[in-house]
Amino acid sequence: MQIDLTGKVALVTGASGELGRTMSRTLAQCGADIAIHYKGNEAKAKSLQAELEALGRRAVAVQADVTKLDEVLRMKEHIAEQLGTVDIVVANAVIQYAWTTILEQPAEDYTSQFESCVLQSVHLTKAFVPGMVAKKGGRVIGINTECVMQNLPTQSAYVAGKRGMDGIYRILAKEVGEHQITVNQVAPGWTISDRDRENNTEQNEAYSQSVPLKRRGTDQEIANVVAFLASDLSSFITGAYIPVSGGNVMPSI
């Protein structure tokens, strides 16, 4: 048994970022052709495109502001011209900001998280799910966070945006399930990425001690779950929120 995405087209938003690059590589290694979304980092997106093409995959780097529907629709048309209909959507892009208390957090940070978590999800649905309906199948995967279960001080804007995203995906799973489209969320813990490896910041004892597995997870471990959810091996899983956090958060029944 293996994950085989041969013949599938996957879109990863925020693909030029730390986790996005690893998810894109992993989906490509499983056989998918990749639409590499970026907002501002064209150089990294183009570098990733060349890397994936060297694997024998078709790849295209496409720029868009995913908080704007017209730009997402333009991105869809460009991907369709280059790769065809998207079978797998991975909503990974998010706006970065400085975390602080609710009393001090600027209102615009709540707006940015709503736009990049909730509206991105809505725009991607409107642009790409109709093609999945026509093909009678597809995968929508949202990258959420363990923070929505932690609710720790200074997390408010991020948690508010990601909790709104959670509502969108749970409802979408019910609305499109009859078309054999699955809709799931992967919720990473505090993940080790290339930036940590370069800066020797992989270890954080205080955080690791709170995790049952006593370590931070890696970007590859997150990407592995995304690849599973993108594949036929997960064909009867939908509406799920799956923490990949070493047990740091545990949804209850």
Automatic annotation (TrEMBL):
Biased composition (Polar residues): 201-211
Keywords in alphabetical order: Coiled coil, Oxidoreductase
Gene3D superfamilies assigned to the protein according to its UniProt record, in alphabetical order: NAD(P)-binding Rossmann-like Domain
Name of the protein: Beta-ketoacyl-ACP reductase
Residue ranges of the region described as Disordered: 192-211
Coiled-coil spans in chain: 38-65
GO biological process: bile acid metabolic process
GO molecular function, one term: oxidoreductase activity
UniProt organism field: Xylanibacillus composti
Family: Belongs to the short-chain dehydrogenases/reductases (SDR) family.
